[in-house]
Amino acid sequence: MTRYRFTVEYDGRPFMGWQRQAHGLTVQAAIEAAIHAITGETVEVIAAGRTDAGVHASAMPAHAEIEKPFTPFKLMEAINARLRPQPVAIVDCAEAPDWHARFDCLGRRYRYTIINRRAPLTALSGLAWRVPVPLDLDAMQAAAQLLIGRHDFTTFRSSHCQASSPLRTLDRLEVTRNGDTVEVFAAARSFLHHQVRSMVGCLKLVGEGQWSPDDLAAALAARNRDALGLNAPPDGLWFVGAIYPGLSVGFTE
């Protein structure tokens, strides 16, 4: 039995999220089905995070244990051949004994992409959030800093979140602009269900002038989901990297 580490890239639009479900296609189920087709083995593919329906990944770490011997390159090629034409691919594969994609993870990184223009999206439709109203980047960045640190993020988590505690430590929340593209980069050891989307939705209200940074601080202090201003759609959210002891996967700056 060999444990393999995968780096997975996927377009989340056709999927009901990462985690296997009784109904609907998921990324986990697609990879497990590909491995079963190759090996005849029923395996569990465990990832660093469980993205929601419509959320994407450029570098999702995952692992699986397989009895049939493969070189990592041949296993990656075989899985990718079976995954076609689904928009999911193994972009890196290595043997990784005693490595756990979820429990060994020390930090997770997400990027949320907003296209700030009036024109409709074409090539990026479903891959970013179009916001037609001009956004005040300085106000968004100032508000974002109020969320950094250890807080009770009840306001910013889904009512269906299964985490035992709403306390999380947000290491970084940065808002940048390059032309029409506004990106929000979030870094933490772990996130609550919908936390990044909820933070981005409220930052968008600040950028539009509907909220002030003080309004965002008040929403955080309320510790009540009813105080949330807006939950951003899944379209613009990407899992972009993760940190492990002695290993970085994807974008982790």
What are the SSEs and their pairings?
Elements: E1 2-10, H1 27-39, E2 46-47, E3 56-66, H2 72-83, E4 88-95, E5 107-115, E6 129-130, H3 137-145, E7 149-152, E8 167-178, E9 181-188, H4 195-208, H5 213-222, E10 237-244, E11 247-250
Parallel strand pairs: 3-10, 5-6
Antiparallel strand pairs: 1-3, 1-4, 2-3, 5-9, 5-10, 7-8, 8-9, 10-11
Helix pairs in contact: 1-2, 3-4, 3-5
Q: What would the keywords be for this entry?
A:
alpha+beta; 11-stranded mixed beta sheet; Alpha-Beta Plaits; globular; 5 helices; 2 domains; 11 strands; 253 residues
Q: How helix-rich are the residues, as a percent range?
A: 10-25%
CATH architecture of the largest domain: 2-Layer Sandwich
Using the coordinates shown, work out and report the CATH topology of the largest domain: Alpha-Beta Plaits
Q: Can you count the beta strands? A: 11
The biggest beta sheet is recorded as: 11 strands, mixed
The secondary structure category is alpha+beta
